[in-house]
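Kindly inspect the following:
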Amino acid sequence: QVQLVESGGGLVQAGGSLRLSCAASGRTFSSYGMGWFRQAPGKEREFVASISWKSSTYYADSVKGRFTISRDNAKNTVYVQMNSLKPEDTAVYYCAARRSDAGIWNYWGQGTQVTVSS
């Protein structure tokens, strides 16, 4: 069982930056694919970014060039650096983990709120 705990959310003005962190329990973190998703009010949860165990990265078109996902296996932590934030980035951001680099996401965090004011 893997537990994921997000932190770093908050209120920021448009154009600002935030860095979200996701701390994972477990001894096999380095072998997991990790991802970030978000869900805005009244909308479906959507993919934001992912990083494979080999540190290959993937981004949604809406955040490409503004967000950067990274991982620190020594700290069992995955990050997403969010720059040039827009009001439409406002959402609850969730961290997820999966045992392979494709397929379903097996574990989810509780989420952290990000609010971008205009």
